Amino acid sequence: MRYPRVLFLTPTSPGRYFGGVRPPVGIGYVEEFVAAHGVATAAIDMNVDFAERDVFDLVEAFQPDLIGVTMMTYQYMTTYALIRKLRQRFSRVRVVVGGPHVSALEGTVLQQCPEVDYAVAGEGEIPLRDLCL
User: Which residue segments constitute the domains of the chain, with CATH numbers given?
Assistant: First the structure.
């Protein structure tokens, strides 16, 4: 297996653009799909009062090989900043991004944030499974 341990990360949504806190369903589907194929997973949703320090602590404890980050366009700059901090602190961990921002811009994300290793546009279950296995 190329990436046997994946941490799924939902960054904070400043101002709660879509109203109250909602579970990150899309990234949840992807997590469940790869877990069913033998990938060890963990997840953290920063919208439920988790801070960067909590993310760093989870990365240290879980030791993922890959971090999957979902991205919304209205928060892409703060997400890029978080990814940069993760890569500075955990240089061996690879980062894959997906979500609406990536689907809209595709390869542009890789140019805008070189700390990202992979970008998945559209549905992520099968591409992420193939990436991990």
Answer: 5-132 (3.40.50.280)
By C-alpha distance, which of 128, 132, 112 is closest to 120?
128
Is the Cα torsion angle 47, 48, 53, 54 positive or negative in sign? negative
Distance CA 45, CA 82 (A): 13
CA distances (Å), origin 98, targets 62, 68, 110, 127? 21, 8, 11, 10
Q: Which residues pair with 9 in a beta bridge?
A: 44, 69
pTM, two decimals, is 0.93
For residue 12, what pLDDT is reported? 87
